[in-house]
Fold this protein.
Amino acid sequence: MNIEGLDYNTQRKKLILPEYGREIQSMVDYAVSLPDKNERQYCAETIISIMDSMYPQNRDNADHLQKLWDHLALMSNFKLDIDWPFDVSQAQKIQTKPEPLSYPMNKIPVRHYGNMVFELFEKLKTMSPGEERDELLRITARQMKSNLMQWGHGSTDNEKVISDLARFTDGAIQLDPETFKFDKYPSRETDRKRKKK
């Protein structure tokens, strides 16, 4: 649909830094087109003061003004011929996007414990008995109970955790339910009552 005098953002030129909006970009384009250097300088400083007023919460940052001038350089495609108060030669680094992080696709037998808990199982398999292993075992058991509660399996009983610990550490960890003390977790009923208060 074409209506005379009406255009959509999708039909317009793509903005370099959309967070400043089309009006600021228009001001920058205007500043670049000015023939007199003094006018360009005055215009650039005015644009910076407007950009600064748009994000006052950033004023506490040490490099706040440097970033504003870097943004101005980017929006002008480095065509703005003025006396820059800061070195803007590194401004292009702002636009480089970081490489995407690879998602770990390890196959684990049960997903509700998560990859990190299975790494703890592997560590527990190789540790010799002692204080360090006991502490890691306590942390692992607590995390397992927390994960079971979070995933709503309806069972956070100690026997399930003890059984899974033995199973996933290939029998290296054998806990005695009579002597091993689990951290106390509130039951679901207690949790519901607490939320109602």
